[in-house]
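Quick illustration, no need to memorize.
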Amino acid sequence: MEPLKEMFNREFYQYFAGVFADVDKNFNSNAFVNNVTSNLNTLELNGRLRNTSIVLQQYLPNDFKKAVDVLYKASPFLRRGYTALVLPDFVALYGKEHFDLSMEALRDFTSLGSSEFGIREFLKTDLEKTLKVMKQWAEDKNEHVRRLASEGSRPRLPWSFKLDEIIKKPSLTSDILEKLKADEVPYVRKSVANHLNDISKDNTNYMLNLVKGWDGTNPNTKWIIKHASRSLIKKGNLDSLSLFNFEKDVKLRIDKFRISTEHIQLGENLHFEFELSSLKSTVQKLVVDYAIHYVKASGEHSKKVFKLKEVSLLPNQTIKFSKNQVFKDLTTRKHYKGKHLIEIIVNGQILERKEFNLTIL
C-alpha cells in the first residue's frame, strides 16, 4: 500500500502548478515545482502539506488579498480531498491580519477538502471572535460548512493540537452542538458525535447532562447520543449505560473462550470464539466488545477496544460469538513483536483475557 504522503508527489505538484500558472500569468510553475520537491523525501504527510503552503506563498502576490484571489481562481480546478487542505492551510498561515477575509475563505474552501485544521489557528489566536463566526456556520445551508462548525471546534481533533480553553469550559461550543443535534446529514451528525465524545474524555458529567436534555426520540439525535457515548459505554460508565437501557448489573458466565493459536505471525489472522450464558432471570441488554493490547515500539502496551455486537440476552440463554482479527501493518497502526493480550468485555466489564505472541519475520 502506497504511503498517504505520496499524495504530495512530483506528479501532483506538476498538475498543481499548472493550475496556478493558468490562472496567474506571473506564477512560475517550473521554479515552484523544483522548490517544493527539493526536500520531499525528508517530509511526512503533514510536513508536505505545510511545506506546500510555505513554498506557494513565495510564488503568489505578496498582498494577502491578491493571493487569496488567486486561490479562489485556482480552486475549481484543483483535486478534491486531502491535498486541497493546502488552501485553508495557506489562509491559516498568512491570514491572521485579515480576519473577515480569512473566515470567508475558510468557509468557501472547506467544501474542497476541509478547513477544520485551518480554523483552529484562528481559535488559538482569538477564541471568542472565531467561535462567534462558527456559531453562524452551524446554521449554514451547506453541510460542509455546518460540519466545519463542529469539527473545527472539537476539543481533541486528531492530527491537531488540543483546544485547552474548550476542554476547561466545554459550554463554549454548546450553541454549535445545539444547532446541529438533529442534523439531517450523517456527515454532520458524525462530527457532532465525535465532538461530544471528545468532551466526554475530560468532562463526562457535563457531556451526559447535555445530551440528557435532548430529544432522544428524534432518530438523528438518538444516533448522535449513541455514537457520542461509545467511549463511556466501552468503559462501563453506569450513567451512559442507563441512557440506552444497557444492563448495569451484569450477571453472566463466559465459557469456551478459545484463540486459534498462541503464536501468530504478522499478516495472519487470530481467530477467537466464546460463549456467553445468562445467570439472570430477566433480559440483559448487552454491549459485547473485545480489546487487543498491542505492543508499542517502547515495549509498553496500548489498548484498542473493538465493537463486537449488541444483544439482548434472555434468561438462561447462551449465545456463541466468533471473530477473526487481522494483524497487518496499516497507515494508522504499525505492529511490533512480543506478547499481546485479548480481552472480552461486556458492558465495560472485563470477563476474561488470553495472551498470544506476535512474531515479525
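The chain is about 45% helix and 20% strand.
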